[in-house]
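User: Please predict the structure of the protein below. I'd like the answer in C-alpha cell form so I can feed it into my own downstream comparison script.

Assistant: Understood. Taking the following sequence of 334 residues as input:
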Amino acid sequence: MKRLVSLLLCLLLLTGCAPALAATTKTASQIHPSFIPWDQLPEPVDGQHHYLLLCVDQWNKPMGNTDGMVILTLDTRGHRIMLTSIIRDAIVCRPDGVPGRITYIASNYGVEALMKVISEHLGVRLEKYILFNFSQIRDIVDYFGGVDITINDAEAHYFYINEVRPRPGEAVIRAAGTYHFGGRAAITYMRMRKADGHGDFMRTQRVRNVLSTLADRCRVMTWDEALGLVNAILESSSSTNMTLQEMQDAAGYAFGLRDCVIEELRIPPSDDMRTAITYAGMSVQEIDWEACREAMADYLQNSFLVLSDDGGESLEHLDELEDDFGDLETIFDE
C-alpha cells in the first residue's frame, strides 16, 4: 500500500499535477500589520509632492471599494515623476485597530481614513487625494483621445471571450498587438486580473501602464491645455480635498517635469514581501510592511543622489551634504 501511495505521489509530481497547498487560515489575533502612527510620521521632504489617486469599483456611484490605489509623486527637487501602486487585497491595520483588507477602508471609514492608513503603513505622509469611479476614469481617457496599449496573447484571449472592442463600432479584439483603446476598453484592461494567472500584481502594472501612457501624452501639452485638463479632472472626480489652486499648483509641478521618464514601484515590490493567507473567509495578502517602508524610502531618497568627482553616484543625503556645500538649492540649480 505504501509503495502504491509513493508511486502515485511520484506520478503527480512528474506530471506537474500535484495539488496546490491550501493557504494558511489566520485569525485577527494572529495578524499584526506593522505601521507608524500618524503623529510619528516625518514631514514631507521639501520638493516632493504626493497625491493619492483612487478609483472605486462602481460605474455610477461615488463610493465603493477602492479598485485602484496609486500614489503620484511629483519631485521638483530631484526632477522625477513616480507612480506607486498598491495591491487591493493587502491586509492592513484598520482605523479600529483590527486587521482588514485595504480595499474596504474607504467605503467603511472614509477616504481620509484610507489616506491615513496608507501613510502609516508606507511611512509617507499623504495629505491630498482625488477619488474617481469607473465612468469618470473612462471620461478622462476619452478626454485624451484614448491610449495606445500593447497586449499579449493571454490578454487578447480575455478580450476575445468577453467581446471587448478597442472603441465602439470596432471589431472584437482577437490577437495580441497594439491597440488604440477608448475609455471603456482601457477600464477593462486595467481591471483584468484573471488573464495570465498573476492576479492583482499584473493588474496594478496595467494601471501604471495606462497612467504612464497618459502622462506621455501630457509631455506635448501647452500650459493652457494643462489647465484645461485640471478642469476636466475636477469635473470628473467624485471627490477631492484639493482646492482649485492646489490642483493648478500640481499641474504646474507636472508641467515642469513633463520631460521626465516615469518611474514605477509596486507595493509590495517583490513576492518575498507577501504571503497568501485566508482571513475572514477571504483570500488576502499578508504584507511585510516594514520591508515595504524601507523600499519606499529608498525609492524616494534616490532623488538625493549626487555625482561624485569621478562621475559615479554618491549615496550621501542632502542633510549630510549641507555642511560641506552650503546652499543645496544652488547645487541642484547648477
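That's the full C-alpha cell string. Residues 119 and 125 are 5 Å apart (CA to CA).
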